[in-house]
Amino acid sequence: MSLCINPQCTEPNHPGNDGSRFCQSCGSDLVLRERYRVMRLISDKSGFGQVYEAYERNVPKILKALKEIHSGHSKAVALFQREAVVLSQLRHPGVPAIEPDGYFQFLPRGSESPLHCIIMEKIDGPNLREWMRQQGNHGISEAQARRWMRQLTEVLHLVHERNYFHRDIKPENIMLRSNGQLVLVDFGAVREMTATYLAQLGGSEGVTRISSAGYTPPEQERGQAVPQSDFYALGWTFIYLLTGKQPTDPDIYNPHDNSFRWRQFAPQVSEPFADFIDRLIAPKASDRPSSTREILEDLAAIAPPSNLPRIQALAARPAESPSSPRTTQLQPAQTQTQHTPFRWKYPWLWSSATALLIGLAGWGGWRAYQQFSGGIVAVQPLVSSATLTGHTGFINHAVFTPDGQRLITCGADHQIILWDVATGQPLRTLKGHSSYVNAVVLSGNGQTLASGGADNQILIWDLPSGTIRHTLVGHTNAVNALAIASDGTLISGSADGTVRTWNLTTGQPIHTLEEHDGFINAIAVSPDARTIVSGGTDITLMVWDLRSGTQRRTLSGFTGVINAIAFTPDGVEVLAGGTDRTIYRWNLETGEQGKPLTGSAGFINTLAVRGDGRTLLSSDAEGQLTLWDLVTGKPTHIFAGEGAPLDHAVVSPDWRTIATGKGFSTVRLWQLPDDVF
């Protein structure tokens, strides 16, 4: 049913609207900007706007429309427009994606005043208030709180770096993706940190007040919010997550003496971590941490429980101006070099030096100095050789056929597309999933395809005919990762925390592996079809015997979520990487951990080992692709894409062609230079 968003429409959900271009009640256009059709109202309780679900073809989106009552107020309009500006500057999985032209105006039929609108990504998951209700309002563990605290603080770090602060952090404004990533939403209250604003803090005149009961700090209630106001709201958000109780709950808050007693409702929390939370909610802003970096450093300094890996502080990174691109754009004649910087002892001196470096050389110049273990490596520009168009939503995964002549992609449009790599033309479109398709994998002979998605199902396809052989049901949440062993066993990993094995030929389930305490993001199977390794949001790798389904060992030491796993061709070594920007390696025969590969510019998204067993490919969230020598443990080549990031790279069997596109609706093909091997 198409919904009319004209505030004056007497029947916005008129039965005749379905399939019509114009509202059958008021005559307003139902297809906004020739692209978006609104389907239902999600909420009208947002402070400034109403939230709708809209579709661009069959891709779900979120449409926010400023309430008509606020359209005549310039400050409300400015706040609403600022949300689109800020979101367009923040490229991070912890922030909803928005197009550069995400803000637009819509003029209803017969109206003289336009509606102010923002269109953005729809997050495939609940907010934390909804999630807690689903869990029975039971408090989360300290380990999970630490992981989530780090995720949210890194998002806030990005926001504060651009001289903004959020001002409305609370469980309803934090969403949980199916892959375990927390997403900070509702930037309508965001405020820019400018000299003019800071000068206004001496008085409340001209300062907009944003308040959410229990989560808003005292200074913000008086109209004098500062960046540390976000930390107060962050602290109370985690008290709610740890106790299941709201800040205004009389069990926690005593209004007579303005005291808080939350610790007794969170017995699972260690005293040092509780002290850390109390510092976040200090009544005076000056008693709270001074910056996001200090929060991460304090979090790292707390001795963790014996079963919790220590969380390292965020590596020092220079602040970007709001106009700075997240991906470095290189010209063909340019070359960048990367050196290993020495460790700065004093953070304030580091910040000053960083600011001076940026002022002299710009962000691109800074990118020349990343942490690598010795040597100098040029960052080479890579130019896309082809662009493949056909998807109508974000692409989630891709895989080459064994001969390298075809590419298979899947995405948020519920489709799987088979492409001819030489011509860039789509050969076949497979439709069968009822929601996002998150992963695809091919059998060794290239004849059988498996796909998994947010509909919790796995489909087994006969690729030559494009028909579905089997529908596998068993997972209770989105399927995030797939692998096929050389003996024909299918392995799946899901946001339900389980790894399952299946008979690829019959579609029958074999084993369910249930030791993980979080979403599964990545799985890999050894070349001899004996060992499965899985990892995800619980920050551990688990090693399983494929045939018996029993756990062999747990590999720990990570300080971030695991996104990618790869075996060496001999099956002796396994490598894994994720959000702590480090690639770890283990010898599975001895259980010994090798020297990690450090210095990646961003979160590790993909890993692949070449057939020679010596070359590792990694791609990261900063858009760089790195080739590593596994013997020396050092990078040999680093590439940055021109016009598009190399952040989720898939390599062809001959290691000549790279495919990217995750998070975009188009696929890019890239050719590695002939001299890299």
Automatic annotation (TrEMBL):
WD repeats lie at residues 388-429, 430-471, 472-512, 513-554, 555-596, 597-638. The keyword Electron transport does not apply. Residues 315-338 are annotated as: Disordered. One of its GO terms (molecular function) is protein kinase activity. Residues 327-338 have a biased composition (Low complexity). The keyword Metal-binding does not apply. Coiled coil: none annotated. Pfam families: Pkinase, WD40. PROSITE patterns: PROTEIN_KINASE_DOM (PS50011), PROTEIN_KINASE_ST (PS00108), WD_REPEATS_1 (PS00678), WD_REPEATS_2 (PS50082), WD_REPEATS_REGION (PS50294). Keywords: Kinase, Repeat, Transferase, WD repeat. NCBIfam families: 4Cys_prefix_kin. This is Protein kinase. It comes from Thermoleptolyngbya sichuanensis A183. The lineage of its organism: Bacteria, Bacillati, Cyanobacteriota, Cyanophyceae, Oculatellales.
